[in-house]
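For consistency, the fold was encoded as tokens, which produced the following:
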Amino acid sequence: MKNLVERGHLLTEQVNPNSHNLDQLSSLELVELFNREDAQAIAAVAGAKTQLAQAINCTATALRHGGRLFYIGAGTSGRLGVLDAAECPPTFCTSPDLVQGIIAGGAGALVRSSEDLEDRAEDGDAAIAQRHITQLDVVVGITAGGTTPFVHGALQAARKRGATTVFIACVPVEQVSAEVDIDIRLLVGPEVLAGSTRLKAGTATKLALNILSTGVMVQLGKVYGNRMVDVAVTNQKLRDRALRILQNLTGLERELAGALLERSGNWVKLALLMHWTGLEPEEGDRLLTEHKGNLRAAVASSNHQQTIQ
């Protein structure tokens, strides 16, 4: 990391001229101001679309070959990474080990401020060593202002281990540089409340992480069309969602969709494959494994084999 400006001059620390009278605005005026400024978060993500696509491709390739995805950050940035990682198992039925969030200060920092720990680069290094990160893995460092030593220490350690490294920051490269494989800059401008990067910077970061993790899961075959066919059926709401997916894609009545879901072991992807190909659960499971969980490829393969026969 190389800082080319004093911290007070970082883009994320500058004073926003559009909100100079923030404390004098009515509630409606506050909402209108925030709404106008938040539009910059969407534009910032659009400005980084090429780098985000690169990150999706690299991460999907890494995960196909046995790697893992790690988010690492401090404060708001760390909490956003942990949140995105925590949402992958229920959304895409992934192992909790596949996508992991690391925050300076550990789990306690999710609910209690421990921002003082972000200044310890050696802790970031130790976090990488503790998780035995290798060249198969992808490490995404998240730091709105770009200068967090904990994140830079982790990224440097990850690079030494051969991991793919990604940097997400809300300041331009000219202000803070980083030696990483993919450099994502979300330039949202100064915050409505000066220096409070949980606002526009946090919103843009959440958008970027949504795109990254969802894009990766799409490429890994966790999605069919725009349905979560790898949804984990762990409660009534998710069972209802699974049944609606089955009904929508197969045309079955709810009772028959429920019976199909039970035969598949509550696995929507397998249930769909069984319905479309006539395979038994064991055969369908084997075919999905052969195609690394990609339902579309498994269906195409089965139909091709039936045509040949």
Observations:
- The chain has a mean pLDDT of 93.
